[in-house]
Design a protein that fits this description.
- The chain is α/β, with parallel strands linked by helices.
- Helices cover 28% and strands 26% of the residues.
- It contains 19 helices and 36 strands.
Length: 759
């Protein structure tokens, strides 16, 4: 039955740094005990005794590793392994915790510390956030690694393109090496000493976010490591509210960004059999927002995550104690301060009861997302936009390429629309005109967190209801048939680069078999000039090699070119320019729509993305789209974003709105089913006399459960796990034949019994 499962399925989990307490007993499947301090074995024991599958999570780039840094572990101080930026300042997670250069010694230290968790009986280990900042690269440890790896003297990365690209590649490689060493060593240790198969996962931000924030990390590269069993896609309000530019307006677009972030991450496990959990966070690291703001953005990211039906495992909440025990908004004197160091004010409030209940219901909903019957409304399948790990390596130009005031400062000062604040559209349009006409400003725009080269091509399509997916360029050479489910692909080498010529060979093979490739670019990216396979082969950029392989001129004019049974469409346009005004965005959309028509796909512009996923309807209506018309659903539904799973026959959502509905038309023949619940259903028994439900959720939650039954219940009673009577309310809905029960939770199991009437 829906919602009833074994915890060993590990569909939902959370990470927790402290001891067990009832307020965070969220009744998911597994708990990632965080950190490898001396309390770790006891924390593992506590959660296991309460029925959870227990994993360990710890940071691989940062953590409370003072015994290593101070020399207590091996007798040698390791402070020179902290990341350092150009001015000599350390790159720190907080004042006493540096981001590390992952040396061999550091990997050995982590391995030894995590063996304690293996001995304590964890089923899996997660090493989170392998992060090497683009601005770093000046520490003594990194200089040593550079000289060992490249067999040449270290040079400052700000000097030229080659050194910057090589330094960035090395940063990602070093974390790949560390993860490979640690995972292999721990798996061997678990097998030899305990005779068990330890699993190893990497929680990491999306490739899209790391590219925006200029953090080097191995993303698709981890696919090549045998010791990695999967990932957690760390996507939440804090990553997805990063502002971007669309049709000349710079602002937060949390839903659209999250949709693309989750999309690029699902590609890491496509066809591999590895596990991917999608993370959702009810708040975020910055503590200065209101509960209304957190709820608004949580609904955006949660909806976006549910629009990717090939993933049905979720991390439901990082740090639940800060959600269910914290008070917000809080004052953070410095933006880099950890949330624990923020200060309560008179405006700080604990979580509203209604939001706590909504979250509890979402946590259970995530556990029922493995659905076979899935389809997008107006679906145009198989449309992809390429991303690549190589995009990380060219996020900052060396000295001399960009001059003048940093464009990020101008955005922040003049244009940033932050969660509802007004934008001076006249000032915005003026700045966009400046960018369009000034080469230095354009390059500064390109290297900004707005990441216009990607969003310039992605947002005009998503905003008009095309469910595109970011496709991993690196995978076309890793997996035969990786592109088989794609019919229309969009590529630009202005912000990513192919690792080897066989990437282009694979793309041309796909085109010849009938695919359509839209190439957008004008060859202006300075990183085309790095020392590379295409330069050594006599090409000015990798696109020239691509076109020549297709039998075209190296620098073709705008137009469509037949290639085998497929075609290549060329537009000599810098992708970042598509952000700047509506006309360019519209011209690009029409180019894609005409290309899709020739593939036999009729893309009708719409302002929503709507997925039917089993009995659930997940829908987002977007602003800045083809119209402001609301979307209306008519039928018989339970509203999953209402705490009581309210029964409705009509739902209207306007621009910037979201809906998650349960469609009763999908369960016509079912007489017994959980429709929605904010408590875990541990058991559900139907007898001739009625129904018995065993429910459990965290402390201080108003819990609701709606269950479909063969006939009406006349009497409802409840007792808790101690045998004491529990106060429970009940309502019957005849149209849906559902019983709604509710009660105030005290973090104890409650057994609810519903008895049919006589006759």
């Amino acid at each position: 039955m829906a919602y009833i499962r074994e915890k060993t399925e590990e569909l939902t989990g959370y990470q927790a740094g402290g001891r067990f307490r009832p307020s965070v007993d969220l009744d998911c499947d597994f708990v990632m005990v965080y950190g490898i301090d001396d309390t770790m074995p006891e924390r593992i024991r506590e959660y296991r005794e309460r029925g959870y599958v227990v994993h360990l999570m710890t940071g691989i780039a940062w953590g409370e590793y003072q015994d290593y840094l101070d020399g207590k572990w091996d007798g040698r101080k390791h402070w020179d392994e902290g990341q350092v930026q150009r001015d000599g300042a350390g790159v720190n997670h907080n004042p006493t915790v540096p981001y590390m250069v992952p040396t061999v010694a550091f990997s050995e230290y982590l391995t030894e510390r995590m063996k304690i968790a293996v001995d304590a009986g964890v089923e899996a280990i997660h090493v989170e956030e392998p992060e090497f900042w683009d601005k770093s690269g000046y520490s003594e440890a990194f200089k040593r690694e550079y000289e060992i790896h490249y067999r040449e003297p270290w040079r400052p990365q700000h000097e030229n393109l080659d050194v910057r690209y090589k330094s960035a590649r090395l940063k990602a490689y070093l974390y790949c090496r560390t993860i490979d060493r640690v995972s292999a060593a721990l798996k061997e240790y678990a097998k030899v000493k305990h005779g068990k198969d330890l699993r190893f996962y990497v929680p990491t931000h999306s490739l899209l976010n790391y590219t925006q924030w200029k953090i080097m990390s191995p993303e698709a590269a981890l696919i090549g490591l045998a010791g990695v069993d999967g990932y957690i896609a760390q996507i939440w309000t804090g990553t997805s509210r990063e502002a971007n530019v669309y049709e000349g307006v710079y602002k937060e677009r949390t839903f659209e960004t999250a949709y693309l972030e989750y999309g690029v991450m699902q590609e890491l496990v496509k066809g591999t059999g590895r596990r991917m959990w999608f993370l959702n966070d009810p708040i975020e690291d910055l503590a200065g927002y209101t509960w209304d703001n957190y709820r608004y953005n949580y609904i955006k990211t949660a909806t976006a995550s549910l629009l990717h039906p090939h993933i049905w495992h979720y991390e439901i909440c990082p740090w639940p104690h800060r959600v269910f025990e914290g008070k917000y908004p809080r004052l953070q004197p410095r933006i880099e301060e950890k949330i624990e160091d923020s200060i309560e004010t008179e405006e700080s409030r604990p979580i509203p009861q209604a939001y706590a209940t909504l979250l509890s219901g979402m946590f259970q909903l995530f556990g029922d997302m493995e659905q076979e019957d899935v389809s997008f409304e107006g679906d145009v399948p198989g449309v992809g936009l390429f991303m690549s790990d190589s995009g990380l390596f060219q996020r900052t130009f060396p000295d001399g390429v960009v001059t003048g005031e940093p464009i990020e400062e101008r955005f922040r000062r003049a244009l940033h629309k932050n969660s509802g604040n007004a934008v001076d559209e006249g000032q915005a349009a003026a700045l966009m005109r400046e960018i369009e006409g000034d080469d230095s400003m354009m390059k500064d725009f390109i290297q900004s967190p707005a990441f216009p080269q990607f969003f310039g091509m992605a947002l005009p399509l998503v905003k008009y209801g095309l469910p595109i997916k970011p496709v991993q360029l690196d995978n076309v050479r890793r997996f035969a048939g990786y592109l088989d489910d794609c019919r229309f692909l969009i590529l630009s080498y202005e912000y990513i680069k192919p690792e080897a010529p066989d990437v282009n060979a694979s793309l041309i093979s796909w085109v010849r078999a009938g695919g359509t490739l839209l190439y957008i670019g004008n060859g202006s990216d300075p990183f085309h000039g790095i020392s590379s396979w295409w330069r050594r082969s006599g090409y000015g950029n990798p696109a020239e090699h691509l076109f020549e392989m297709a039998g075209m001129e190296r620098s073709p004019k705008d137009g469509e070119y037949p290639v085998g049974q497929g075609r290549i469409v060329v537009w000599n346009m810098l992708p970042a320019r598509l952000c700047l005004n509506r006309d360019l965005a519209g011209a690009y959309r029409e180019l894609v729509r005409e290309g899709l028509k020739k593939c036999g796909a009729d893309w009708q512009y719409r302002n929503d993305l709507t997925l039917h996923r089993g009995p659930y309807i997940i829908s987002a209506v977007m602003d800045e789209s083809v119209s402001d018309a609301p979307k209306t659903f008519q039928g018989l539904y339970a509203d999953m974003l209402e705490n009581d799973y309210r029964i409705i026959d009509r739902k209207e959502i306007g621009p910037d709105g979201n809906a998650i509905l349960f469609d009763f038309a999908k369960i016509e023949g079912e007489t017994f089913r959980i429709v929605g619940t904010s408590a875990r259903v541990e058991r559900a028994d139907l007898t001739d006399a009625g129904v018995c439900l065993r429910l459990k959720t965290a402390d201080n939650i108003r819990a609701f459960t709606r269950v479909r039954l063969p006939k009406a219940v006349a009497e409802v009673s409840a007792v808790d796990e101690d045998g004491k009577e529990a106060k429970v309310s009940a309502q019957w809905d005849e149209r849906t034949r559902t019983l709604l029960v509710s009660y105030d939770s005290e973090a104890k199991a409650v057994e609810v019994t519903g008895r049919y009437g006589r006759g």
